[in-house]
Amino acid sequence: MTKSKERTTKAKPAAVRPRVPQLPPTISRAALMVDGTDMLVRMITHQHFVLSGLLETVRGGFASLIGLSSFQYVLMQAVGRLSNKQQWTVRSIAREMHMTDAYVSVEIADLVEKGYLAKIVNPDDRRVSFLELTDKGVSSLTAIAPIQQMVNDALYGHLDSHSALAYSNELSVLISRAETAISVLNDVAADQREAALRQPPKRRRRTAR
Fold first, then answer.
1. What are the residue boundaries of the structural domains of the chain, listed by start?
2. Which CATH class is domain 39-138?
3. In 3-state terms, the chain is what percent helix, strand and coil (to 5)?
């Protein structure tokens, strides 16, 4: 005689949803609020973060083709392709890239040693040297140009010359606004440090032995 086994069905636990905290908005301008929230600005900020990581991957890929770091690749592109904007020096590159003079100087010295860049002494001020690509630098950037064309066509395929110019102008404004935002952040941080220094130190309670 066989005994029938009773099948017991267990109730599935209810789906657990993470708690959504009520956080204060990160902006105060009503013009940027949507339905009383800062969700749009948060989304833009998040998209900037994601985009910066993706673009860094692209730059790193280009740089690896000629055995350079991402920053050295960007630096060479600036010297080789944006020289009509200004004559590049260590200081002007540091200001443009928002890097310290010391860091830029080390990276440029490495590129000069590897033969990608050359320093040309300014005849009007021999303390200053202008930067230019060497023949090796030119040939290196020329060699990867076909790959850059394919990648950049995919990256900017949604733009034409008019929309690209508008996008470039908007980025210039945003860069300027970011510089202002950093100044505000530094001022606030400095005020907070001063306030912390003005506070009397807390006395430690002595524990009975």
1. 39-138, 161-190
2. mainly alpha
3. 60, 5, 35
